[in-house]
Design goal:
The chain is of the alpha+beta class and 635 residues long. The chain is 51% helix and 19% strand. The protein has 17 helices and 20 strands.
């Protein structure tokens, strides 16, 4: 029973491949039915195709209906027996006497039908003649019907072949046009995509054989459900690809491939039912890989699939060989290129080292100058600051004394009265304490600046010490305080500094170098904000009208701290950002910068085991991120 069902399913599939059902009448077929009716001298002649639910008449003579149920008539019996059926008198035949077309109109009394047999041996219908009186055809008439049935099938086969050729040409054209303008990796991706689309299959792949391991293949392109998916490696063990590689010929499994490779998880996972692959061989016959197509159903048209795969396997092999040859040429010159690169890197490193030495020497000299100036200022400052308290006390005593004189001698002599009027004693009496208080505040301010200058220079801390990061930031900001204030040209554009300090431990580092990093970054931020203000004056608003620098600190992961310094300036383009840490690169005008600050800052942070990165885009400001270890690791 199962075999009969499978045979019927296959027969129906073949019938539908001809795409003939429900098509209009055609002279090629009508001429054959007319000829059959004339030769057999029958009033009715039919070309009948039997599908799962009906009998459909492609051509008819003598009746008007175009279809009939399976139980009405005799053609389904011809299909079942696959042989000629001759009924001389239907009423005298017990099997057919009660058939609906016998007992009811049109009251058929005789029937002769020959099968329409395909090239694969399936019977898809009949060529038959009917009469309404009992009769028997001659043997010659029956042979003519057989010949005419073969002509019917020849027409169908010709049309099927014509459609197949048209589809092959269309598929070939589609794939050819799809890959004609691509090479390299893009060619392989385009080829598998167009192959799956043109053939209507589930997936296609191009695999390259590992020449050092002949049991392994790496996919160059894999298309699944019309989408390119990630490449992967797979072994040839228990795979149909092994035969393709080893035999170097097309290998085909039109259906039921999983039963032949039961242990192949790839076929099982993708539910592959059919497989066809061709080897990719180079100009000397060496196998480079394979081109394979797979489907979740049996292949409908093996010839079409095999033709396209074989054609484009040759094209893919040519491209793969070209790539491998190009790779070999690149390998031959790679060593020289590496040597040239090493030389270039050595020169660049030498230039960077020289620049860093110059910059470090400048910073050392600056530190020495700052420390010297701070020391020289500190001595007279201490003298002035120490005596201001006494001067304030003496001035108060003298003013009190004068007040006592005024109280007990309210009418001084004329000379003293003239002197009081000339010196405006009341104003001096009121302003002198304020003046001395301002001098004390100024002296305190100078003392604080001197202390910060000494802390910033840190000449006595060339080695790694525990540094208060917040103190270093504050010292740097104080040195830059004058540049942060509003300028006469921009009286309303003071640069605001927002501090969002976290609870940081002291960080082991070279304090002088880290202060240098802070100085470089903050100086650049101020320059960027001032440049933004210049652009705003010229009518090009490219940044926030309220310039701001935001400094954030935090413990990152118990082993590192992070310092973020961000501004709301004009930002940088991708091109500038990509070159930011290169030596001698600067966007400032001639004389405005050396292009060494950020390069040296990057190396300082890197030597401390940290990372210096920058985030920026035009109109969105700039943020520098300094990540540093809390404790230095031994080299």
């Amino acid at each position: 029973m199962q075999a009969l069902l499978e045979h019927e399913a296959a027969r129906l599939k073949v019938l539908h491949q001809y795409e003939i059902l429900d098509t209009p009448a055609e002279p090629d077929f009508d001429d054959l039915t007319q000829l059959a009716a004339q030769i057999c001298q029958a009033p009715v002649a039919l070309i009948t195709l039997v599908d799962a639910n009906r009998q459909w008449f492609k051509s008819k003579v003598g009746i008007e209906v175009t279809a009939a149920p399976l139980e009405a008539g005799f053609c389904p019996f011809v299909v079942q027996k696959s042989d000629v059926l001759i009924i001389c008198d239907t009423l005298a035949d017990a099997e057919f006497a009660k058939n609906p077309v016998v007992v009811s109109p049109p009251h058929v009394r005789s029937y002769t039908g020959v099968p329409l047999v395909t090239s694969k041996g399936y019977v898809i219908g009949t060529l038959c003649v009917l009469d309404f009186v009992p009769r028997q055809l001659t043997q010659q008439q029956i042979e003519v019907l057989r010949a005419l049935s073969r002509q019917v099938m020849a027409q169908l086969e010709h049309r099927l072949m014509t459609r197949q050729i048209a589809r092959q040409n269309a598929a070939l054209l589609e794939v050819t046009q799809g890959v004609s303008t691509t090479i390299g990796e893009a060619f392989f991706y385009s080829l598998v995509q167009h192959m799956t689309k043109a053939l209507g299959v589930h997936c296609a792949l191009i695999g390259e054989l590992n020449q050092n391991n002949q049991e392994q293949v790496s996919t160059l392109a894999f298309c699944l459900d019309n989408k390119i998916v990630s490449n992967f490696n797979y072994h040839l063990d228990n795979s149909p690809c092994r035969d393709v590689i080893q035999k170097r010929q097309i290998c085909c499994y039109p259906s039921d491939i999983q039963s032949q490779f039961p242990g192949n998880s790839f076929l099982k996972q993708l539910e592959i039912e059919s497989y066809l692959a061709a080897p990719l061989c180079d100009s000397v016959g060496r196998c480079l890989g394979l081109l394979a197509v797979m489907d979740r159903k049996p292949f409908d048209n093996m010839q079409n699939v095999e033709l396209l795969v074989s054609i484009f396997a040759t094209r893919a092999a040519t491209e793969l060989e070209r790539q491998q040859t190009e790779s070999a040429l690149q390998t031959l010159t790679q060593q020289e290129q590496e040597r040239a690169l090493q030389l270039e890197q050595a020169v660049e490193k030498l230039q960077r080292t020289h620049s860093q030495l110059v910059q470090n020497e400048k910073m050392v000299s600056l530190g020495q100058l700052v420390a010297g100036v701070a020391h020289e200022i500190n001595n007279p400052l201490n003298f002035i600051y120490g005596n201001l308290a006494y001067a304030s006390e003496y001035a108060n005593d003298l003013l009190n004394l004068v007040q006592l004189y005024q109280r007990y001698y309210p009418h001084p002599v004329s000379e003293i009265q003239a002197a009081l009027t000339t010196t405006d004693f009341n104003f001096v009496q009121e302003d002198l304490p304020k003046l001395i208080s301002s001098m004390i505040m100024g002296a305190n301010r100078i003392r604080q600046i001197v202390l910060l200058l000494r802390n910033f220079s840190r000449l006595d801390q060339g080695e790694m010490t525990a540094m208060d990061i917040h103190e270093g930031l504050d010292n740097t900001l104080l040195l830059l305080q004058n540049r942060l204030k509003a300028t006469p040209r921009y009286p309303d554009t003071e640069i605001k500094v927002i501090k969002e300090y976290g609870n940081l431990p002291n960080v082991e580092c070279n304090a002088g170098q880290i202060n240098q990093v802070f100085m470089n970054i903050l100086t650049n931020a101020i320059d960027a904000l001032r440049n933004g203000q210049e652009s705003a004056v010229e009518g090009q608003s490219i940044c926030d009208p309220n310039p701001c620098i935001r400094i954030q600190t935090a413990v990152l992961d118990f082993e590192h701290i992070v310092v973020r310094i961000a501004d709301n300036g004009p930002g940088m383009t991708e091109e500038v950002l990509s070159k930011l840490f290169e030596p001698f690169f600067t966007t400032k005008p001639v004389g405005g910068g050396t292009g060494l600050g950020m390069s040296i800052s990057y190396e300082i942070v890197e030597k401390h085991g940290g990372e210096l990165t920058c985030l920026s885009s035009p109109g969105q400001g700039t943020e520098f991120i300094i990540k540093m270890p809390i404790i230095q690791q031994p080299n």
